[in-house]
């Protein structure tokens, strides 16, 4: 009995040791897979750097392995632009087998990882507001370029990868200067030989024709160049002020003085002789007023590109949000829509931004506020801060110009760096990321809306493929957006953003909110759902929406931004610069389609 008992005990002990070895081998395989995936996401790095990175992941994942002893060395066996082969070794201390001279069992694991970006169109929607200045901005730039490195690998371009950049703050600058992946550039060409304000002063149609002749580039077709859209000129009212006495006195609202004239005839500049063109100064009076010496009947215009011409200034490329409710009172949500612009439906066109000149009360001021027609004396006209903001006369003075000390941007204030359309030019994308600057306030729905438009095949940007495209190589194309912000939607009553000024009620009226920021939150929530569903009715899978909340305090990150992401794992609450880099890397690895091939 005793003789047979010893082999039985030995057999049980050896079985126990083999179980420990099997468990440890499984642990080693899993840890090597995780380490290899992490390294394969950075194939652009040198082999030595990747070995250090992978070794760190391996050690971390095996830190609690119960039966392993000693070091677990990892080695990169081979590395190409698309593949990575790695191996790792470990030792397991035995129990009963040690009685038979086997103190340790060596383990070895090997795996190969293949990296390939399937068809991907990606829009990176990046917060460039003032709060991003400093280390936040520099970290974002580094993380964004690291993402490009992961996706492009060692290549400078890829036939199955296209990336767009949409920097946003108060507005989005759509005047892209870089060509898209097809080599097509936006065409906002102008004919300097035809000044836009050179049309017949008595004929609005002739003026419109000259304006269109000046703005002859093909992409002006989706811009409201002649003031037909609902909000073009909304801040600057051509019928709001008239001269009380015709002698330089205080201007008042039309309804207080000339109510009948307001309804019966337009207000014009008085001139010394009927038919004279306005070449210098003038007074706003109805042509029927006793102080009018004669009338030119020159129609006064307040549309934005016309006012840029009056100031001899260039529009840089920012646009306003399209109406939530159109001119007929119909709710259309055009601000968060990809409905293409159509000249026969002016509210679908995009209105060039124009920051009206203010004269106090904290509004942006870039023109003179005293005696608008330049005689050198006289009171501010008009007296009220809001009235001065809407005052049209100043743009018609003979020497109308932007003061040298008028602050940044003049009518282009709050307009940041332009977008980059879908491109496969890695170096160009990196250059555009490096050029980003942090300024102004936070308007997230406007940024995300333009990110969506970058991925939609309809105008204004048309470089995107149709939803659900499978190309001639059998590759199915997917669409994704990475939205990064470091703060909640914010504005104040003096802040002009793509939704205009607070007092216009573009947001508060339709949304039923007294707080425009809360209204923007509602726009964002509705937009997120639209983006995630985009293209599903056209054979696509929707747009994969990743959201990064960067160093945000309070509950907004969870309450507002987490539901915006396509799924919970696509939301990243990055509390530090290192967390931001990790978030970008995890997204890049997910998009890069890394898999274990052996």
TrEMBL record:
InterPro entries (alphabetical): Tad_N (IPR028087), vWFA_dom_sf (IPR036465)
Organism: Futiania mangrovi
Chain residue ranges for the region called Disordered: 402-426
Protein's UniProt name: VWA domain-containing protein
UniProt domain Putative Flp pilus-assembly TadG-like N-terminal: residue ranges: 2-41
